[in-house]
């Protein structure tokens, strides 16, 4: 069993021209606590690519986008969604995976899911 998470900002649609902001993708988590800033140091789960690699995100290098990318709503308070998926297996994903690859790997293996929503403003 494992856990996968997606942290996204759908309020980014008007700012990005029609795309959700992906702030963090992580999979193959086998523990129930991730500490602050551990995205940069943990090596016991795999992380995907956030939206900072996109034109809208400033075209940050791919390697620097394999971690949590902070919340930075540019226009107003945004609602951020943290999707947590309980899975029946370890997923076959490599560091830097994309959101569509995560959903493809999870298909048919989701035991349960939960979404936590919160508002963040600068």
Overview features:
five-stranded antiparallel β-sheet; 2 helices; 122 residues
Describe the 3D structure:
By secondary structure, this protein is mainly beta. Strands 3-2-1-4-5 form a five-stranded antiparallel β-sheet, with helices on one face. It has a single domain, classed as PEBP-like (Phosphatidylethanolamine-binding Protein). It contains two helices and five strands. 10% of the residues lie in helices and 33% in strands. It is globular and about 40 Å long. It starts with a strand and ends with a strand.
Proportion of residues in helical segments: under 10%
Query: How many β-strand runs?
Result: 5
Number of domains: 1
On the 0-100 scale, what is the average pLDDT?
A: 89
Rg measurement, Å: 14 Å
Low-confidence stretches: none
Name given to the CATH homologous superfamily: PEBP-like
Physical arrangement of strands within the biggest beta sheet:
3-2-1-4-5
The helix/strand class is mainly beta
Helix and strand run: EHEEEHE
What global shape is seen? globular
| Percentage of residues in DSSP E strands | 25-35%
Number of helices: 2
CATH class group: Alpha Beta
CATH architecture: Alpha-Beta Complex
What is the first-to-last residue Cα distance? 37 Å
């Amino acid at each position: 069993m494992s856990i996968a998470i997606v942290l996204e900002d759908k309020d980014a649609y008007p700012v990005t021209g029609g795309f959700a902001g992906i702030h963090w993708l992580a999979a193959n988590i086998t523990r129930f606590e991730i500490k602050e800033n551990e995205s940069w140091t943990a090596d016991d789960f795999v992380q995907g690519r956030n939206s900072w690699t996109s034109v809208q995100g400033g075209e940050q290098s791919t390697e620097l986008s394999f971690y949590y990318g902070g919340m930075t709503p540019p226009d107003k308070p945004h609602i951020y969604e943290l999707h947590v998926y309980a899975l029946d297996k370890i997923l076959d994903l490599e560091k830097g995976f994309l959101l569509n690859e995560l959903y493809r790997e999870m298909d048919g293996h989701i035991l349960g899911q939960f979404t936590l929503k919160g508002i963040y403003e600068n």
